[in-house]
Design brief:
single chain, about 130 residues, 6 helices
């Protein structure tokens, strides 16, 4: 490793450390689970840096996409740490499959143009906004 490469690596390590410490509470670094989450974040940053330095069109497009949509990309580690909600998609996929099966039943009264209305009613009922 040349001195320039070593200096660049040290600067990158300092920048990564500052990002991690800025976005990670000290308590999160006291447990193995917290350290694992921090390492996952570090892996993302390293992968991003790798793609950014490739110089290929696809890599640049990927990094541009991440930068453009950064505010919309879900931070699953945060939601899991706070136990705010499940990050799995199984329940949603199951509901979609069930709706699709009901549309295909012979003799059923489910028609594609009725589905949005039925779903609105079901959501209102489940949210306690509709009393039946």
């Amino acid at each position: 490793m040349t001195p320039e490469e070593k200096q660049r690596l040290q600067a990158a390590a300092k920048e990564i450390a500052s990002i991690l410490y800025k976005n990670t509470s000290p308590e999160a670094l006291e447990t193995l689970k917290g350290i694992e989450k921090t390492v996952r974040c570090l892996r993302f940053l390293l992968a991003y840096a790798f793609f950014a330095d490739l110089g290929k069109k696809q890599a640049k497009n990927f990094c541009a996409y991440l930068n453009k949509h950064r505010s919309r990309i879900v931070n699953y580690a945060y939601y899991q740490a706070k136990q705010l909600c499940s990050v799995g998609s199984g329940a949603v996929e199951s509901a979609i499959k069930q709706i699709g099966m009901r549309l295909k039943l012979s003799g059923s009264q489910w028609h594609p143009f009725n589905v949005p209305s039925i779903l609105q009613l079901r959501c209102a009922y489940l949210n306690g906004q509709l009393a039946i």
